[in-house]
Amino acid sequence: MNIDKKKNALTAAKRLEKRYPDAACSLEYKMDPWKLLVMARLSAQCTDARVNIVSKDLFAAYPDVYKMAEADVEDIEKLIFSCGLYKTKARDLSKMCRQLVENFDGKVPDNMKDLLSLSGVGRKIANLILGDVFDKGGIVADTHCIRISGKLGLTGSTNQTIVERELDKIVPKNMQTDFCHRLVMFGREVCTARSPKCKECFLCDICPSCEK
Ligand code: SF4
To answer: What is the mean pLDDT of each run of 10 residues along the chain (212 residues)?
Structure first.
């Protein structure tokens, strides 16, 4: 199937908006940018539901960036143990908080270069912050985004950086953040990894992978 990627991306974004009007990040960060940064780091190879649970105790112990910057790494480890990869994540969180305090006055930076200078922050997390916090757009190329974009023929790659770059060209900037949040919802409800529900899918007519 020869497809017009830009047109299909826009169609998909509009239909996803209709189906999921309240696009929201599934990490419950209470509009605190620093908390989103911490939770996004915790979410690697862990469910958002688990991160939301673990974060309650974590933020009760360390309510702000200054408190976490002073914390012993071992104490952070104990609180985030159930998220997996806890040693690496605790080390990153500790260093990231110290970097925020030392280099950015305790504030989360609003640009890609500075975000990438933080320990444990890659382009996926940086784009999440840029989009959700600073309203600058950004493709969050997570597992749902990569898988479903591939199914829809919007990208031929499974490489996170390439998918981000390709989608950035075809999804309008002002729709990118919500588009990615909605792909997560769609990936859990309809286009699931194990058995996509093509028969009930509202994107079937523009999807080269539709098996209806
Ligand atoms: S038609 Fe099937 S493969 Fe394509 S997006 Fe929908 S559920 Fe996924």
So the answer is: 89 97 90 96 94 97 98 98 96 98 98 98 96 96 96 96 97 96 96 96 97 89
Name the domain boundary from 104, 132, 160: 132
- CATH assignment of the domain containing 200: 1.10.1670.10
In sequence order, the 6+-apart residues with CB closer than 8 A to the CB of 53 are none
Which residues form ligand 1's pocket by a CB distance below 6 Å?
151-152, 190-191, 196-198, 201, 203-204, 207, 209-210
Say yes or no: 119 and 55 in one domain.
yes
pTM across the whole model: 0.93
* 128 and 39 within one domain: yes
Contacts of residue 175, Cβ cutoff 8 Å, sequence gap at least 6? 10, 13, 17, 137
Catalytic residues: 124, 142
Q: Which residue is closest in CA terms to ligand 1's atom 8?
A: 191
